[in-house]
Amino acid sequence: MKYKYPECLMPFIGLGLFIASRAAAPTVASSLAAARPHGRGRCRHCRQSRFWVEMEVVLHEGDAKDWVYKGEGAANLILSYTGSSSSMLGKVLRVKKILKDKGQPTPICMLFSSYEEFMWGKIPGLLDSVKNDSLAQAYATHVMGQHLGASHVDGGVLVRVSKNFLELVENNVLNIRPAWRVNASAIDAEADSALLISDHSLFSGNPRGSSCIAVEIKAKCGFLPSSEYISNKNAIKKQVTRYKMHQHLKFCLGEISKISDYDPLDLFSGSKERVHAAIKSFFSTPQNNFRIFMNGSLVFGGMGGGADSVHPNETVKCLEDLSKVTGLQISDFIELLSEAIFKSGVLCKLLATQKLDDHDIEGAIHLYYNIISQPCLVCRSITDAELLCKYSTLHSLPLDQSQKIVRDFLISATAKDCSLMINFQPRQSGSTDSAYDSVFLGSVNQIYDYKANFIDLDVKPLDKMVHYFKLDQKIVNFYTKNGEVGGDRCDYPKGGGTSDDIKIQLQH
């Protein structure tokens, strides 16, 4: 029988979209919320029906010229649309990548193992989304949206892509990508879909000619762990942030050219003075933690590479350019950003989500072995009787409790690794009505509309738990032995661990 679409969904049909009835998602993709006549609410049809919204188009070879490189992370490459299609303006395409080194752990989860099916199976629609190749979309919407706030999460829309399109895009962006990214990964030309999401460096509906400043912040972990399962030899974790310890290891390995002054505890502190200090530190060492866009174009910060650095002269020029376009001095800009951070409350939600990890990896790794029903290889290496007793308590937990703790750990891992996009647009003089929240900047007597969105909200693979544990030990071992690294590089072996690294191999 032919399905009759409810009236509330007809605007999507008019936009060139089709609705496929699938038991996977309870609402229409949030990226198209502006087209929904109910605004942010949901009518009975939207509540009772489960729909994926997909574009009724396939991106072919001829479309590749309209998509340009915007940035990338470990798992995805981001393309910005530069063509003339009104339905695509203000959108970016998130294309999946594959690692060239098959020995490296997969950065995100695209297929569930049997263990993951049991662990995530209670979340409605998540298992079905794997079959539909829409796991990233479902996880962002139904898992991370629940914790970070649905209004700050954009699940996106799946679009079909041809192999020729992906191969041509790969060739077009090759010389623009950071060299180390090119060496590590490539676009997955075998993928048959990509995720179309709003370009959160722009305001919706104003992709061209608008005066819009956007800031991308990768805040990292904003708290010090206090888990009882952290061993005494790793007690430094309770005093020094993971970010700081990792910075010193990265510097030693030559992965960064300068150790950042950024302290995540400042950004999450709730103190305006400390938040200002955190923002200021980004300007000298943005690395992949801080980027500024003007009307959708990157004007400050790197292309997503960890070794990216900005020369002081570049910082001065960037600030001069920003001042010319916006009329804002650096102090104004910092005040504007910090006000939006405080008023939106997004960092409070992010921190609460990060704190779902209440066992630390040193506790959660044992529960991972509970889930996969394998002897714990970590316990084999421990001689401390008191510590073994604590860990044996973890190994005696029932399976459902082990799954919840590890599930919360992986949700926290996504929150520690995601980015926050905040963008601003000066409100037109005389305008009092706006769909956006706003802040008043007294120094320039101007109201700015703003919006905040989280991006890079992929589910972390269960089998990455071993990688998390080994990396944690590597970082802490290095910092415990070497402390804060000075100006010289060290002889720490690149690409490998120390002789003290615990050797763990997955057994299936």
UniProtKB/TrEMBL annotation:
InterPro entries hit by this protein: Ins_P5_2-kin (IPR009286)
Alphabetized UniProt keyword annotations: ATP-binding, Kinase, Nucleotide-binding, Transferase
EC number: 2.7.1.158
One GO term (biological process): inositol phosphate biosynthetic process
One term of GO molecular function: inositol-1,3,4,5,6-pentakisphosphate 2-kinase activity
KW Cell inner membrane (keyword) present: no
Reaction catalysed by this enzyme: 1D-myo-inositol 1,3,4,5,6-pentakisphosphate + ATP = 1D-myo-inositol hexakisphosphate + ADP + H(+)
Protein's UniProt keywords contain Nucleotide-binding: yes
Gene Ontology CC terms: nucleus
PANTHER family the record matches: INOSITOL POLYPHOSPHATE KINASE 1, INOSITOL-PENTAKISPHOSPHATE 2-KINASE
Written domain comment of the UniProt record: The EXKPK motif is conserved in inositol-pentakisphosphate 2-kinases of both family 1 and 2.
Function, as annotated: Phosphorylates Ins(1,3,4,5,6)P5 at position 2 to form Ins(1,2,3,4,5,6)P6 (InsP6 or phytate).
Name this polypeptide is given: Inositol-pentakisphosphate 2-kinase
Species of the source: Zizania palustris (Northern wild rice)
